[in-house]
Design goal:
7-stranded mixed sheet; alpha/beta; globular
Length: 702
């Protein structure tokens, strides 16, 4: 069957060894098809990206859902009373009273996903700002009307006196009518200033039109920068940058009014900041917690800006950090809260926006709606989740804190053992990040390439899945960080398996041995040719730099044979041809590799530095080779962006893309060897003719 549902994502999953299909799940275990019709268990530390606090298919939640369906619960009963929704709102306010001490209730708006809850927060905060603008406009108009009435009452013979600022606004010889006209022109522009939001660097708030603009990662955001709300990003440790920006950008309306018989003009600040959005623990940003001191400073900034503080608890809330709200642990009290993921119990797609009553705009309920939001089934599931969390004096919270401490301790033991390749362990409760040291200068070309391409975490995840039966994923904006979010019932044995699997990865990284990593990602079922880890360190980091050469040349070349791959990364020498061909075939969706370390030769006019930009290409490209022209063009673009004035494409790649190739030959400079995989092993290699011509100054840049 041809794949038509997110086909390209499916192809990318094969590159990372993640192209598997799970057939069953319970608790912290998922099952893959096994031999002879059986099932193979996998320990799930992804936890539905944080949506499975109670694990997969918790029996009590499944029984409740089954009973709801059996009873014929009417999910679709829009514009009617929803008792389940009212009970959810009441239960949530019991929690907010206990954990946040807000001093007032929160109104609850229902949605379907975390990103939609953020969209609702964006819309509500903008509506509140629009109402503030309306009140300011009404006040300006009332004062202007008083001035017009005073002008009419005074008559043309007795013009009203103008205060100095009013006379300056309208110009020499102007009267009150001219002042009013100029103020109206100015105010029309000032009051139409587009709203802006503040968000933290590293934050993630969704990928819908509005929420995406609050997400810091430029890879996700910039292609859609022209859409949605405008956001400014500030460091968590420097929230006062928001005040500096507003001080420089603050628009003012001109208020024309009568004071002591004269027409005066006062400047009134126009509210243009709609909200400040923060996560108490950044999930996609690498599992980074706000400190209590940072939380206090952000709160003060919001007070100074008179804008709502929107706390995104979509991933950190509903018990994951050992309390219902992660923000409660750092003294952060929001005006808005967004919740999703675990509040649906892993069965319902639902989310919630909580708005402090003093800032709630009741008209929002008529301007914002959703067909599926607040349905009885989802609300009833959320009600059951809240009951289970609050039961026995919050035993589930305590268990999450205890299991999180055990998990953190096991990971910190790995950090202590492998401090050379593990950078940090972060997080709270069952929201933990395990960060590897940056491998973008790794000696192993394979490991270095995964790091530089941003796929390091996915490659590690594929290895852990295939070799250790562990399911993990990296964070979206910190590819060297694995996020770990199991259920509150995760056992010691599973935690021990995780620690052992991570030790295996760390050993491969420490020794720069990529063989078992590559073997696991090929999809080949045969055992790896060796289980021992060998030391391939040379003491020469792959990212070493040297003084600028006279000329920088890029060579876009194919990496297309098993022998070339073995020379490319010597640790792969033990893999047979079939396995390496399988690796190349599965890598087709991501052919472009990170550039190799540059090598130098004496050219015609001084030192010439050559950097190879490799492409993985099958020896006999099949139907998938149709994408090669785009891959070659992308590598050429990457080479140019890296500052290479001369870019040469190998003859074979040109032939594969259908471009003409000139005949002829020219010997390369004596003693010049291309990096491993592109030269002759053991002897200096002669350069391909196009590259030799480039070095001799006779070939044009691509």
């Amino acid at each position: 069957m041809e794949e038509l549902a997110e086909r390209y994502l499916s192809q990318a999953l094969s590159v990372w060894g993640l192209d598997v299909e799970y057939v069953r799940a319970e608790g912290d275990t998922m099952y893959l098809p096994g031999p002879d019709g059986g099932q193979r268990p996998v320990v799930d530390f992804v936890g539905g990206f944080g949506s499975l606090f109670f694990g997969h298919n918790h029996p009590e939640l499944v029984a409740h859902a089954t009973a709801l369906l059996a009873a014929g619960t009417p999910s679709h009963a829009q514009l009617s009373r929803r008792t389940e929704a009212q009970r959810v709102a009441a239960a949530l306010n019991t929690v907010t009273d206990r954990e946040l001490s807000a001093g007032e209730p929160y109104e609850v708006v229902f949605a379907n996903s975390g990103a939609e809850a953020v969209e609702a927060a964006v819309k509500h905060s903008e509506l509140a700002r629009v109402f503030r603008l309306g009140a300011l406009s009404a006040e300006l108009e009332a004062h202007a009307r008083e001035v017009r009435e005073a002008v009419a009452a005074a008559g043309a013979d007795r013009p009203l006196a103008l205060a100095p600022e009013a006379a300056e606004l309208a110009g020499p010889g102007a009267d009150a009518d001219a002042v009013l006209a100029e103020a109206a022109r100015h105010n029309a522009e000032a009051l139409s200033r587009a709203p802006e939001f503040f968000a933290l660097e590293g934050g993630f708030h969704g990928k819908l039109v509005g929420s995406l603009q609050l997400t810091h990662n430029p890879t996700f955001r910039l292609p859609f920068a022209a859409l949605g709300a405008r956001a400014r990003f500030v460091p968590a440790g420097e929230p006062e940058e928001a005040l500096k920006y507003v001080a420089a950008e603050q628009p003012y309306a001109l208020d024309v009014l009568l004071r002591d018989g004269a027409v005066r003009v006062l400047r009134r600040p126009v509210p243009f900041v709609a909200g400040f959005v923060v996560e108490p623990v950044q999930g996609e940003g690498g599992i980074r917690e706000l400190t209590a001191e940072q939380a206090a400073r952000i709160t003060e900034v919001c007070r100074a800006l008179e804008c709502p503080l929107i706390v995104d608890e979509i991933q950190s809330g509903a018990g994951r950090t050992g309390s219902f709200f992660a923000s409660a642990g750092i003294g952060l009290t929001g005006d808005y809260y967004t919740l999703a993921k675990s509040v649906g119990g892993g069965l319902a797609k639902t989310s919630l926006l909580l708005v402090r009553r003093s800032g709630y705009v009741k008209e929002f309920e008529l301007l914002h709606s959703s067909t599926y939001a607040k349905d009885s089934f989802s609300c009833a599931i959320t009600e059951k989740v809240l009951e289970m969390l609050e039961r026995d004096g919050g035993a589930a919270y305590r268990q999450a804190a205890e299991r999180g401490a055990r998990l953190r301790s096991a990971l910190e033991e790995v950090l202590a053992e492998f401090g050379d390749v593990v950078h940090a362990v972060r997080g709270r409760g069952l929201l933990v990040g395990f960060e590897f040291s940056d491998q973008s200068a790794a000696e192993s070309p394979v490991i270095r390439n995964y790091a530089r391409s941003g796929f390091f975490g996915f490659a590690v995840a594929g290895f852990l899945l295939r070799r250790h039966g562990l399911r993990l994923m990296p964070t979206g904006s910190a590819p060297h960080t694995l996020r770990i979010q199991p259920s509150y019932a995760i056992g010691d044995e599973a935690i021990g398996r995780l620690a052992d699997g991570l030790r295996d990865v760390c050993t491969l990284l420490r020794n720069q041995d990529a063989l078992r990593l590559v073997h696991a990602l090929t999809g080949v079922d045969t055992p790896a040719p060796r289980e021992d880890v060998r030391d391939f360190r040379t003491g020469r980091p792959g990212g070493a730099t040297a003084p600028d050469p006279a000329l920088r040349v890029a060579y876009v070349a194919e990496l297309d044979t098993p022998d070339a791959l073995r020379r490319f990364d010597p640790s792969l020498a033990g893999l047979d041809d079939a396995t390496l061909r399988a690796f190349v075939a599965r890598s087709a969706p991501v052919r472009a590799l990170a550039p190799l370390p540059p090598v130098r030769s004496a050219g015609v006019a001084g030192d010439v530095e050559v950097t190879v930009f490799p492409l993985l290409v099958e020896e006999a490209p099949g139907a998938g080779a149709g994408t090669l022209p785009g891959d070659v063009a992308a590598q050429v673009g990457a080479a140019r962006a890296a500052g290479h004035p001369v870019v040469v494409v190998s003859p074979r790649l040109l032939r594969l893309t259908g471009a003409p190739v000139r005949d002829g030959s020219m010997p390369g400079p004596a003693g010049f060897a291309l990096p491993g995989g592109f030269g002759t092993d053991g002897d200096p290699a002669l350069l391909p003719v196009e590259l030799a011509e480039a070095l001799a100054g006779t070939a044009p840049a691509v």
